[in-house]
Write a structure and sequence with these properties.
- The structure holds two protein chains of two kinds.
- Chain A is of the alpha/beta class.
- Chain A folds into two domains: 234 residues, Rossmann fold (3-Layer(aba) Sandwich); 242 residues, 3-Layer(aba) Sandwich (Rossmann fold), CATH 3.40.50.
- Chain A has 17 helices and 20 strands.
- In chain A, a hairpin with a 2-residue loop joins strand 19 and strand 20.
- In chain A, helix 13 crosses helix 14 and helix 14 runs parallel beside helix 15.
- Chain A starts with a strand and ends with a helix.
- The relative contact order of chain A is 0.10.
- By secondary structure, chain B is mainly alpha-helical.
- Classes of the chains: A alpha/beta, B mainly alpha.
């Protein structure tokens, strides 16, 4: 089937999320849709799948005008979407998730489970997806869950497949497998739209690339005739330095030393066992690994959010274990948490309030009864200016800022005071390319000033670009250590537990 | 370092059995000291009436030795848990609980006679409104709507049953009670699904409103017109043959339509929720509404329908208080059964069959306190009347702890456009 979008526009209040978008994708073709967060990619796809109604414009399938009012109608017209956050019910089985809404039934509306399973198995083997229909979703790894999503849309006879940031949650190995799957789908004549902000991936897999910026298509490129630099410039609208320059530095003295550290999870299982590591001054230590292999717990332990069951942590040669977060903060350890909305900032609080969240008790801001708002405002303005937070006032609430600006505010709050150790978790998740560049530069310059940095990220590219040394976590253990110039494929294998 | 690590883990896993074991040993001792000493005579439990076609002989237990053996067994279980530290010891706890109840009953009955079958029959009867409240709760919570208003819906059903039953007879009274329950389900759905009012607040509002309006109508309408508060009750229907089985017959097959229909509703709703396509969709709406919406299932409609259905079940359960038992309405006569029903729902892990068993436990506590009052034990009747609520607190605080509700519970769904 051939899909054509003609002059599609959609606004939310005063914000034009999409304006006059034209786009085509043909059968057997992979179209890359490249754009930053907030460029309007997801809005466009939600229009295509019937979740949103466009203000104006036409959708044509095989040159026939179509209109969808809900996802089911889009399905009926052969459009299926794999969402960035999977639309799977965690407690249901694979089969139940796939048939939901289109269940084959017997008498009395009883679900014909055998029939359903057979259909799932047939699709699974036809496209080499290899999924067991009886397993429960929440027990499956993310890569398999994604395949369930793919079977789900194929079960509904989709001919036009949309993937929204499909690789964001996958390990490097799973990405390779995923690319094989979509190449297979392409061979069988499906039309595929691949939405992403990762430059490398569009160049690798797509036949044609459309770049979206501020709700408009700003360019069409072909992978053979373009490169990362050109695409990044189109995407951001200005020249971008993709590689952070990082000159080699001698390791300083040992800043943090962890010996034989073990941590129990909330349900009393070992999530971290017998970990040893060392961090020096003037060093960025990258922690690579698929999410859920103990990195989060290590960082929670280092920042006082989780208690340690055994082992030793020493900081400047002194014991530092099971301290409160405030005490740790006072020692000059700064934390950029992995989820800024849940842990770093309070969305409904103003920028001023957020700026003093972990220092409000200091004499400067409080006389123990009332807060000194004048000083708090000065602090907020200082952070906003110094860390390039784009806002017109320090009085608006934090969730009014874009992801990148929220992150800059958070990093500014943590880094604007005396600091010895920076623990940064996913510092650029959901942040636009321009801000990534800025944040990376901040981290590197902190390290150049003699600070030790622990960088935890699921983006291998980020780890490799910034780290002086890389360790890989797998099932709660450090299973490998690499110098910074290691081939990403080797690190990727270690992340999957293969040595 | 390695050693301390190991010790830590062992400490975590060995502490719990020791505490539980010691508690059981203490329980055994308490039972013997408070119930077993200074007691003699026989406890006479009647299982059948002499007129029954297959009469069973009475169960006669020597009080002192029965209590002594029970206490000993409980102490033995406690010791076993400490010695062997098995991974799962729920079975031992349940057995000890059962023995405690049995010992208590024997103590209360010593030297007297007591109808065991009668108490079990009352257990089933008293479990009915709790089970129905739990079913209503399951219908709502499976689609992620918390229904705190069940108590009010029961009360509305009870009032409607009494009023309309008096005017139109018990059959139409029952139908109208169901419709009134459904009406309050509709109000709740409109508030929380359409207007996205906080679900707890909306439910509480319904409770207060129903309590107020029924009290007002009772004092201004029913008091002056006693003929409007005198509904014919549903008589019990003896199922042929089945009702002649000793013990089981009177307990399950000599009951009124409320009991039969409750069991029917439990079976139907289990089938509906877990076997049918509609049930699958409903559960999906409760777990991950957005996923359901992307597959073309209307979250709002599904929630609306189920909350109304829940209201109708609650209305039916409410009618039990009037049409199924006393035939007249009294202010606040539901006495918190709606809330106990919600506890039963949680205890039964949002599954109709589980909730039914939980309701039977609460019903047992309820009938136990009623029957013990007749035996004239030295325990003041006010304390006995607390039994069902006490059991609720113990169950909710102790056992339920880690039950997992539908994921989206309590959250309003905003449809995007």
């Amino acid at each position: 089937m051939k899909l054509k979008l003609h002059e599609i526009s959609k606004s939310f209040g005063p914000v034009k999320a999409n304006s006059n978008i034209n786009l085509t994708v043909d059968r057997g073709e992979i179209l890359g849709l490249l754009g930053e967060n907030g460029a309007g990619k997801t809005t466009l796809m939600n229009i295509l799948t019937g979740l949103y109604k466009p203000d104006s414009g036409k959708i044509l399938i095989d040159n026939k005008l179509r209109e969808f009012h809900n996802p089911r109608e889009a399905n009926k017209n052969g459009i299926g979407m794999v969402h960035q956050h999977f639309m799977l019910v965690p407690v249901f089985s694979v089969t139940e998730n796939i048939i939901l809404g289109e269940e084959p039934t017997n008498r009395f509306n009883k679900i014909d489970l055998e029939n359903a399973k057979n259909k799932v198995l047939k699709i699974s083997s036809e496209y080499k997806l290899n999924v067991d229909p009886d397993l429960i979703i929440e027990k499956l790894p993310v890569g398999i869950q994604q395949r369930v999503e793919i079977i789900k849309i194929l079960f509904r006879d989709a001919e036009i497949l949309i993937f929204d940031e499909p690789t964001a949650v996958l390990t490097p190995q799973e990405v390779v497998e995923f690319f094989e799957i979509i190449k297979n789908l392409k061979k069988t004549g499906k039309a595929i739209i691949f939405i992403t902000h990762k430059l490398q991936e569009v160049l690798e897999i797509c036949d044609r690339i459309n770049v979206l910026r501020r709700g408009k298509i700003v360019g069409e490129e072909y992978p053979k005739k373009t490169d990362k630099k050109k695409l990044a410039q189109l995407m951001v609208g200005r020249k971008v330095n993709l590689r952070t320059s990082r000159k080699k530095m001698e390791q300083g003295e040992v800043l943090l030393e962890i010996n034989d550290l073990s941590i129990l999870s909330d349900n009393k299982e070992h999530v971290l066992s017998n970990v040893d590591l060392k961090l020096h001054k003037n060093e960025i230590l990258g922690i690579a690994g698929v999410q859920g292999n103990g990195q989060t717990e290590l960082i929670e332990a280092l920042t006082g959010l989780r208690s340690v069951s055994s082992g030793k942590i020493s900081y400047f040669g002194k014991e530092y274990k099971n301290f409160s977060p405030r005490k740790i903060h006072q020692l000059g350890v700064r934390h950029i948490p992995e989820d800024r909305q849940k842990q770093g900032l309070i969305g409904d609080f103003s920028l001023t309030e957020n700026s003093i969240l972990n220092t409000y008790y200091e004499e400067k801001f409080s006389n123990n009864i009332t807060l000194n708002w004048a000083n708090a405002k000065i602090e907020a303005k200082k952070i906003i200016e110094k860390f390039d937070v784009r806002t017109n006032s320090e009085n608006i609430s934090a969730n009014k800022l874009s992801g990148g600006n929220q992150q800059k505010l958070l990093i500014g709050r943590e880094m604007s005071r005396s600091i010895n150790l920076l623990i940064a978790s996913q510092p650029t998740r959901g942040v636009d390319v321009g801000s990534i560049e800025y944040i990376h530069n901040q981290i590197v310059s902190a390290r150049n000033k003699g600070i030790g940095v622990i960088l935890n990220s699921t983006e291998l590219e980020e780890i490799i670009a910034l780290s002086d040394r890389i360790i890989v976590f797998f099932e709660g253990k450090v299973i490998a250590e690499f110098p910074s110039d290691t081939n990403p494929n080797i690190i990727g294998l270690a992340m999957a537990g293969e040595n | 370092m390695k050693n301390s690590n190991k010790n830590n883990i062992e400490k975590n896993t060995t502490k719990k059995p020791i505490i539980v074991g010691l508690c059981l040993i203490a329980l055994g001792c308490i039972i013997y000291i408070f119930l077993g000493l200074n007691i003699e005579g026989y406890a006479n439990f009647r299982l059948s009436r002499p007129t029954d076609p297959f009469a069973l002989p009475n169960l006669i237990l020597p009080a002192h030795s029965f209590i002594g053996i029970s206490a000993l067994l409980i102490v033995f279980f406690g010791g076993r848990i400490i010695m062997k530290a098995p991974k799962k010891f729920t079975m031992f706890i349940a057995l000890s609980f059962f023995l405690t109840i049995a010992a208590f009953l024997v103590w209360a009955t010593a030297g007297k006679s007591f109808s065991l079958t009668g108490m079990l029959q009352a257990t089933v009867v008293r479990a009915v409104p709790i089970a129905l409240a739990a079913m209503a709760g399951i219908m709502c919570e499976r689609v992620a709507v918390i229904n705190i208003g069940i108590e009010g819906m029961l009360l509305a059903g009870a009032f409607a049953g009494a009023l309309f039953g008096s005017i139109f007879g018990n059959f139409f009274g029952l139908i109208l009670a169901i419709l009134v329950g459904g009406f309050f389900g509709f109000i709740l759905a409109a508030l929380v699904v359409t207007f996205r009012v906080d679900q707890i607040i909306a439910g509480v509002a319904i409770n207060i409103f129903v309590l107020g309006i029924t009290s007002f109508l009772t004092s201004h309408l029913l008091k002056s017109n006693p003929e409007l508060n005198d509904a014919p009750v549903f008589k019990s229907i003896n199922l042929p043959i089945l009702s002649d089985i000793p013990v089981l017959g009177p307990v399950f097959f000599k009951q009124n339509i409320f009991v039969y229909f409750s069991i029917f509703i439990v079976i139907i709703s289990t089938y509906y929720l877990f076997k049918t396509a509609y049930g699958l969709r409903a559960r999906a709406v409760g777990e991950h509404p957005k996923a359901a919406e992307t597959l073309g299932i209307s979250v709002l409609k599904t929630r609306f329908h189920h909350v109304i259905m829940g209201g109708m079940i609650a209305g039916f359960g409410g009618a039990w208080f009037t049409l199924g038992s006393v035939g007249r309405f009294d202010e606040g006569m539901t006495g918190g059964r709606g809330f106990i029903g919600l506890a039963a729902m949680i205890f039964g892990r949002w599954h109709p069959v589980g909730a039914l068993f939980a309701a039977l436990i609460f019903g047992f506590a309820d009938s136990l306190q009623q029957k013990l009052a007749i035996l004239r034990t030295p325990i003041p009747s006010e304390f006995l009347a607390m039994a069902p609520y006490l059991v609720t607190i113990i169950v909710v605080a102790g056992i339920v702890g880690n039950a997992k509700p539908p994921q989206a519970i309590g959250q309003a769904y905003v449809k995007e456009n």
